[in-house]
Design goal:
10 strands; 35% strand; 3 helices; OB fold (Dihydrolipoamide Acetyltransferase, E2P); alpha+beta
Length: 215
């Protein structure tokens, strides 16, 4: 999150008229892109917590039906009170069916943006690497999902798309280049993306007001 810029929240509609929401310059915490089991998280559940920037927005989201929680300051503990909500990253249903088999538009997209404004679509297997990174900027979209379980109902927030910048290595950041340090899907895909970008750079329009182009 860039503390010099405000966090913005916008309601949008997709091509089918369904509402979704866009949060720019968001502060996120407790990231679990890998779906690691913890005392507070079941194995395989990928998610992160979005720190909602102001109480009025928190009330608005709660009014829509989202599960907004309030973090209170404990006694003898330094910190601030704030509202937050969980954003779920779902590649499969609870019974193991791929989300893409139900609706391809529901498959979450996770993009890593580098210092040269190149973005790379990470895979379900590679997004777990983000848990070990310091995230410096986040823009994400999420959609409402109404659920029913054991005769209970509720609404959760499902990730549609997210763009992240991470803190760069101070030594590698001094140089420009493209090297596949590890021959994995991420490095190969990034090499291909860079090559395509160079080839078609004069044909691709830039974004209007974002720090990188959204596909």
């Amino acid at each position: 999150m860039n503390s010099n810029l405000p966090t913005t929240f916008e309601t949008m509609k997709d091509s089918h008229g369904n509402e979704f929401y866009v949060v720019d310059n968001a502060l996120i915490q407790w990231t679990n892109f890998s779906g690691t089991e913890t005392p507070y998280n079941r194995k395989g559940k990928r998610n992160f917590e979005w720190v909602i920037p102001d109480p009025e927005l928190a009330q608005q989201l709660a009014g829509l039906g989202f599960n907004v929680k309030h973090h209170s300051v404990r006694e003898d503990f330094d910190g601030e009170e704030y509202d937050h909500m969980k954003i779920e990253i779902s590649y499969e249903t609870n019974d193991g069916r791929p989300i893409g088999d139900i609706n391809k538009e529901w498959v979450p997209e996770v993009y890593l943006v580098d210092d040269d404004d190149y973005y790379t679509l990470l895979t379900e297997d590679s997004i777990g690497e983000l848990d070990s990174k310091i995230i410096t900027y986040t823009l994400f979209e999420f959609r409402p999902y109404n659920w029913t379980y054991n005769k209970k109902t509720g609404m959760s927030a499902k990730l549609k798309r997210i763009f992240l910048r991470v803190k760069q290595d101070p030594i590698m950041g001094r140089f420009k280049g493209n090297t596949a340090v590890r021959p994995n899907d991420y490095s190969v895909q990034r090499t291909q993306d860079l090559q395509e970008r160079i080839k078609f750079s004069n044909q691709t329009p830039g974004g209007d007001d974002l720090p990188f182009e959204i596909p």
